Amino acid sequence: MMSFTKEQIAKAAGCKTTNELLALAKAEGIELTKEDAEKYIAQLNGSALNLEDIKNVAGGCFANLCGADASAVC
Question: Is there a contact between 25 and 33 (Cβ–Cβ < 8 Å)?
């Protein structure tokens, strides 16, 4: 796993586009795919996960923990 300096993280956070982030990575000697850059930019722009994404990340429905009707949520 690669570690990044605080400066590199701050620079990446300042990128507005995928191309800016890819150029920064190249300048810093960091290997970064276009797909990973697009995901990072989407996160910076506040893209929210939808319910299906959350279920995939969490490994399934969470409604049972809250006593909710699973069929209504999942």
Answer: no
d(Cα 32, Cα 15) in Å, to the nearest integer?
14
| Torsion 44-24-8-5 (CA) sign | positive
Give 54's pLDDT tier (boundaries 50, 70, 90): low
Q: What dihedral do alpha carbons 16, 18, 22, 27 form, nearest 10°?
A: -10
Q: How far apart, in whole angstroms, are the C-alpha atoms of residue 6 and residue 4?
A: 7
Confidence (pTM): 0.58
